[in-house]
Every structure is written in structure tokens, then in C-alpha cells.
Amino acid sequence: MGRSMSRLTAERLQELYAGTLQLVADHGYDNVTMDQVAEATRSSKATLYRQWGSKSALVVEALQCVGGTDLDLPDTGSLRGDFLAMVDRKEGQEHDADMLAAIMHAVRDDKELAEAVRGKILEPGRDRIREVVARAVERGEVAADCPGLVFVDYVFIAPIVLHHLLEGEEPSPDFLRRYIDGALLPALGLH
Amino acid sequence: MGRSMSRLTAERLQELYAGTLQLVADHGYDNVTMDQVAEATRSSKATLYRQWGSKSALVVEALQCVGGTDLDLPDTGSLRGDFLAMVDRKEGQEHDADMLAAIMHAVRDDKELAEAVRGKILEPGRDRIREVVARAVERGEVAADCPGLVFVDYVFIAPIVLHHLLEGEEPSPDFLRRYIDGALLPALGLH
Q1: At what angle do helices B10-27 and B55-67 cross, to 10 degrees?
Q2: Which residue of A has its CA nearest to B191?
Q3: Across the interface, do A157 and B162 touch by the CB < 8 Å criterion?
Q4: What is the per-residue burial (b if ≥16 Cβ within 10 Å, else e) of B177-186?
Q5: Partner of A74 for a Cys bridge, out of A85, A134, B16, B92, CB 3.0 to 4.6 A?
Q6: Does A84 lie in the same domain as A50?
């Protein structure tokens, strides 16, 4: 696909991604058509298909952009500092859970979307968590044979995905910070 | 609502609940109509409405029944034993994650469903986890001031909800058992 990204400014692209994800969060991935995306983002359907090729490619790229997996990893010198920096970046992303719920549902029926979401968003996100923890092991902060190492991504992601389901609202930055100290670090043997 | 449950045998009820949840897992809560439920479960729509009053009431009761929140709590004498007993009961519930994904998506748009799911399924489930942990605190197994106590439900639920999203399949009983030892008990200060 010979993309011509240069035609869209970074600002326009952000706007287009945000509009796409808002539609997915509101109506569910399955129910959103490229016509609706075109209308909501004031684009032409031809442009959307030329640029992204398919709805799944557009949504995955939008999620990648919003997910921030392209940001530099924090390196504060302590695992606690790195985890805090990672969740602080999540502040203001109010629709995280909406989109996640919509995507979780959609990937169950759509193998192409599922593979793209896993390969381009979930795996890179898990790699970032593992990388930060691997550095803590290198520093001797976490034991190399700590049994929690293989589960750290599950424990890290849990409050981000589950808080809305359990409490009816996004987790506050304060909740996430307390969770890091009360559950995530202890799961790695740090108290 | 004057129910006449006696008309349906326990077996027939199980079958009806299973058929309803299968539809929800396959098509999403929003997309399932009472007509479809009636057809799939070989019931009349009039019977369904007389018995449950609404789609949300039917689905919530089906989830309650399948979720097993009415089962006796295990009391093995150790927290590890109780947790193991709780996840072992999950074996064979292959569609857990499908339904959960469908329900997570649906509750975001439907306040009535959201309240029913939280009040009748999620809260009782969290209470069960907390009850098992409270007993461990009474026994002196877990410190009463352990900071992980308030987050134990998140850490417990994480692999059940997230495994399918992250790995594309339900967690195996063996994975859940290793998670209990590697992440859940350590988050409560037990190693």
C-alpha cells in the first residue's frame, strides 16, 4: 500500500483517529461502517480506503497512536518510578476502557482484527512492561527467579481494564498509584 | 412479578440459560432479540416475558446461574486451597470469556443491565473473594494491614478476563493454578 501520509497533517491525523475510536467506543467495532467514519471525520471514503485499505487497519493504527506504544520507555532508575510514569501517562485517556471493551468484543469474531490488535498493540504494550521489569532484574531490584515475573503484565493491566467494569468509572490516577504500591510491586516480591 | 418457575424443570432452565448466553456470546448482547432467544431455546416469547419480564433480567439470571455465585464457598483451611478450589470450579466453562466480553461491551451502553450485572453478579463474586481472604486474615495467614487486601479482587479476576484477550484462548486450569502461586498469593504477602 503506497501511503501518502504527507497529505494529512499530524493534527488532522490525530483528529481522524480520535473520531474513528469514538465511533468504535460508542457503537462497537462491528457496527461502525467506513461511511460513518468518513462522515464523522469529514473525510471521503475513497481517502480512507486509499490511506488504510480496511476498517481494521484504520482502527488498529488509531489504537497504536492513542496507545502510546511509540513513546520512549520511562527510565527513572527504580521500578516503582517507571510504573508510576507509565500510568501517569494514561491520565486524561478517558475513553481507554470504552475502546478496550469495544475491541475486546470485536476481536472475538474477527481473526484479522484480533491478530492486528495482538501483534501491533497488545504485544508491544506487554513488551514495554516486561522491558521495564527486566531492567529492574538487571539492577537487582527484583529477583531473577521471582515467580511473578511471567504474570506481571496481567497484574499491570488488570485495573486499567477491570475498573470500569467493576466500579462503573475509569480508575483515578490515585487509584492506579495505590494499586502499584499495594498489588503490582508486592506481586514481584517488592514491599 | 409473579413467577411460576415450577413450570420449568431445573434441566430445562439450565438449557434455556445456556442457549441465551450462547446467543449473547456469539452476537453480542445488543444484537440478540427475545425472538432469537425464543427460537434458539424452543420457547415462546410470551413465556420468556412472563417469566423474566425483560431481556436484561433473563440474561442476568442466566449469568448468575452459570457464574456459580450461589455455590458454597470453599473452606479448605488455607487461602491457597480456597483459591485453588475456586478456580478449579471454573474448569469446563469455556465460554466465560466470550460472555464476559459481550457483557463488558453491553453494560457500557445499558445502565439497567450494568446495575443488574454489578449488583447481582460482580458484587457477589467480589464478596466471595473478599470472604475467603477475610477468613485468611482471621486465621493470621494474611496480615490485617496488608495493602494488597483492597486490590485482591482485581488480581484474582485478571487472568480470567484478560487471558483470552492477550493469548487468544481461555486460560488452562494449570495457568490459573500457577498464577495463584506466582502472582495472587504474593500480592497478599504470601510466598
Answers
A1: 110
A2: A189
A3: yes
A4: bbbbbbbbbb
A5: A85
A6: no
Kindly list the residues from chain A whose CB atom is less than 8 angstroms away from the CB atom of residue B155.
155, 158, 183, 187
Q: How many angstroms separate the CA atoms of A103 and A98, rounded? A: 9
Q: Report the SS3 class of residue B170.
A: coil
Model pLDDT for residues B112-166, shown as the tens digit of each residue: 888 888 888 889 889 999 999 999 999 999 999 999 999 999 999 999 888 888 8
The answer to whether residue A101 sits within a structural domain is no
String of DSSP letters for A11-52: HHHHHHHHHHHHHHHHH-TTT--HHHHHHHTT--HHHHHHHH
Chain B nearest C-alpha distance from A9 (Å): 33
Instruction: Identify how many contiguous H helices and E strands chain A contains and give both numbers.
Output: 11, 0
Provide the residue type at A110 as one letter: D
Question: Is residue B31 domain-shared with residue B87, that is, in the same domain?
Answer: no
Residues spanned by the domain of B121: 71-93+112-187
**Within a domain: residue A104?**
no
Q: Which of A114, A178, A187 sits opposite B186 (nearest CB)?
A: A187
H or E stretch covering B162: helix B152-167
pLDDT tens digits along B49-88: 999 999 999 998 888 887 666 678 999 999 999 999 998 8
Which contiguous run of DSSP H or E holds residue B152?
Answer: helix B152-167
Residues of A in contact with B181 (CB under 8 A): 147
Distance CA B190, CA B125 (A): 22
Q: Side chain identity at A36, as an amino acid letter?
A: Q
